[in-house]
Amino acid sequence: QMQLVQSGPEVRKPGTSVKISCKASGFTFTSSSIQWVRQARGQRLEWIGRIVVGSGKTNFAQKFQERVTITRDMSTTTAFMELSSLRSEDTAVYYCAAEILASGYGDWGHGTLVTVSS
Amino acid sequence: QSVLTQPPSASGTPGQRVTISCSGSSSNIGSNYVYWSQLAPGTAPKLLIYRNNERPSGVPDRFSGSKSGTSASLAISGLRSEDEADYYCATWDDRLSGSVFGGGTKLTVL
Q1: Those residues with Cβ within 8 angstroms of residue A94's Cβ, 6 or more apart along the chain or in another chain
Q2: What is the pLDDT of residue B42?
Q3: Is B109 in contact with B15 (CB distance < 8 Å)?
Q4: Does B75 touch chain A (CB under 8 A)?
Q5: What are the chain B neighbours of A63 within 8 Å (beta carbons)?
Q6: Which tens digit of pLDDT belongs to each residue from B37-96?
Q7: What is the pLDDT of residues A56-90, one digit of tens each?
Q8: CB-based contact (8 Å) between A39 and chain B?
Q9: Number of CB pairs < 8 Å for A and B?
Q10: Which of A36, A42, A74, B103 has its CA 20 to 30 A from that of A93?
Q11: C-alpha angle B78/B9/B84, rounded to 5°?
C-alpha cells in the first residue's frame, strides 16, 4: 500500500530556510515522481515543483524557481523540499504527492505545517 | 487566478448527482491527463480520479471522471454528507512545464 510520511511541523523566522521530508513506502520509489504542493489557510492548492525520482529531473513553478530545491535519497526512499528566504506568506501546509509513472496512480502525504513568524 | 477554471461552489441534497467542471486549454487538459483530489477539513488530501477516469482502489464508484477536449468533469452520484469537501482538478501544462491546479470547488451537501 502506497504511503507517504512527512516530517513534522516547523516554525521559522523570516529570511531563513526550511527542509521538509517525505518518506515513501509501498511502491517502487525509483519509478515515480514526487510533487510538492502547498495550501495556505483558506487558499487554493499551489504547485511548487516536482522531481522524477529515477532521473532526478526537476521542474519548478516559476514563482518558486529561485528559492526551492527538491531532492531525493534513493537509499532511504525519501524526497525533500527546501524553501529558502522564507517570508510570512510562505506559512502554509506543504504536501508531497507521489505518482507511479507507468500507471498514473498516486497518493498524497498528510501534510507539514510550516509557520513563518518573527 | 488559476490556469484551470472550476466553479467556486456546488451543492446538492443527499442522494443527488452533482457534477464539477474543470476548464483548461490545449496546453494542459487538451493534451494531458486530469486528476481529481478531495480535501476535507482535518484530513489528508485524497486522490479520487487519476488519468481522467481511473479510480484508485477504495474510492467508491459513486465518483467518476471524464474528459472531453479542453474540459474535464468529476461526477458524484448518490451524494452523501461525508462528500462535503473541497475538490480540485489538476493536470500538467506543456507550456508552463509544470503542474497546474484548478481553484477548487467547495461542495456543500444540503
Answers
A1: A6, A20, A36, A37, A38, A48, A81, A111, A112, A113, A114
A2: 82
A3: no
A4: no
A5: none
A6: 999 988 889 999 999 999 999 999 999 999 999 999 999 999 999 999 999 999 999 999
A7: 999 999 999 999 999 999 999 999 999 999 999 99
A8: yes
A9: 60
A10: A74
A11: 45
